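Record type: ASSEMBLY
Status: queued
Input:
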Amino acid sequence: MNNIYLPNSAIIKEVIDENEQIKTFVTVFRDEMFNRSFTYEPGQFMMVSIPGLGEAPISISSTPTRPGALHLSVRKAGSLTNAMHQLQAGDYLGLRGPYGRPFPLDIMGKDLLFVAGGIGLAPLCSVINYCLDQSGSHGKKIILYGSRRPSDIAFQSDITAWQKHSNVTCLLTVDQEEPGWSGSVGLVTSLLHNIDLNCDKSAALVCGPPVMIPPVLQQLKKNGFTDENIWTTMERYMKCGVGMCGHCHMEGEMVCVDGPVFNKAELNSLKLET
Amino acid sequence: MKTISKVLKKDHLKSLLRKLAKDRQLVAPVRNSYGDTLFTEIEALDGVEIDLDNQAQSSLKSFLFPQQQVLFEYSTDQGSAPVYKAIDSDGPTVFFGLRSCDLAAILYMDVIFLKEVKDPYYRQKRENNILISIGCNEPFSNCFCRQTKSGPFMEYGFDLQLTDLGDRFFVETGRAQGEEIIQQWAHFFSPASKEDEKAQYQMRLEAQGNFKRQVLVDLAIRKLKDDLVPEEVWSKLSSRCQDCGGCAYICPTCTCFTINDRKISTDSGERIRTWDACTFAGFTTMAGGHNPVDMKQNRMKRRFMHKLYYDVKSHNRTSCVGCGRCVDMCFGGVDIIKFINMVGQGEI
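Status: finished
Output:
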């Protein structure tokens, strides 16, 4: 019988230091056949474990359009993620998944607005690169990314690539300036004021720290986005990933299977204040 | 499926159980030397007092979903990939003497653990079970299963359902496995006469009226649905909650769990699943300290809402089976009956 709790062993091929708090682990399953057949969709997550330290849900930051290696971007937060930050290329992780409801594929061809803060860019990286890799996708993509300080800006190599892309506008902002920073200073909401998008034909994808979400959603509403066109991905404590353990229960929904991706209309119907 | 009705003399009960237990584990409510009645695994039937007069203080939850369970062992040799080894569960079991609420609770756990994605450990323990339940002629002091539609007798889910008729049991089959038992051990059973059928019908009818507490479950469900429960109800109840988790542990349908690793040596250990309780402060706290459900009031709300509202929404029935066990367990006196009646009667 298939045992959903048994992790698959994966080897870390590379560790990318995104900033002081975030590292991206480029992982490959040890079983090569499994690795080649493994696939997922943008917005899904993995349960990641180190034997002896336990498991945590981590969103996938790579895209299935670039198969072979799975990217997991991890912020130092608790005991497991702190231990992960000690790992190096050649070390092992236990992975099971992918889990969760992904971002809907039918929005990928639209004009898309991405609003992210900090580690929140990780799941959106997956969608952004997925869209850019689709040959038929010519929709406009606007990426707004807020970081605390310029030295905290993660996913630099992706950002560099996006800034060179003809269909993409990628704007960065920081909360606190540092010497050498000539870009925008202020909350990511400030970048939302001058967005040139036809809101009826586009969707907004939002992910960031809990404090960032409410003001961004308010501003998007002012910009003219309907609740059905505003998508976000929720973060919750999770133990199983398959809708059994109860930890991520949210007003009758299990974030691990009914989410983590929700649109704002769905969150409203759950009477969640956003 | 057509129900077959038989009669089993009480004198024959132990002999039948002995046969059934020959190649299976046997679990039944047993009164121990401390005077507690608990579902117990019976090694030898001689000298054991199977207690069908008192409500078992525990449910069968721990037999299918143990309070602590090793999911797998791991070992990590320096420099090589970790090896994960799953643990095998035990063999078939006869559960005897479970009440309608206990049976309903198992059927609810099936909904949670055996949906599209199956929990392999639960499934292993649930497979090859024989369920022999007994209806309640006299519901116990805190019972309200009639209101939760899970008793005092069940219509489905059992292999055999017994009705106590004094010196004998009326026996109904509910699943093919029950029929097989009756066929295989035919000499223990005799045909049910018209009188037996009448007596059983009468017992079932009277049982409906023998409940000692009035618990307005449907009214509470409606008020929760229409969002008519004042915040004051939650705050008043939660001020008496001691955060002990006792209600969730004793509850036959509370299935929330946590998973942790336990190191055995530097390079080996186990991944363990343990019961958890949504009333605990840390239940939803994420690494880094953010807690989306951080007031005791909200945690209590979530527990009762889950039992009486969310499960009605997603499974068309409450996950409270009306067994009343949490009533005796809660020393703050803020059990589910208290809640239901506070909501129903509008008393705060």
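Annotation: Chain A has two domains: 8-99, 105-205.
Annotation: Chain A has seven helices and 15 strands.
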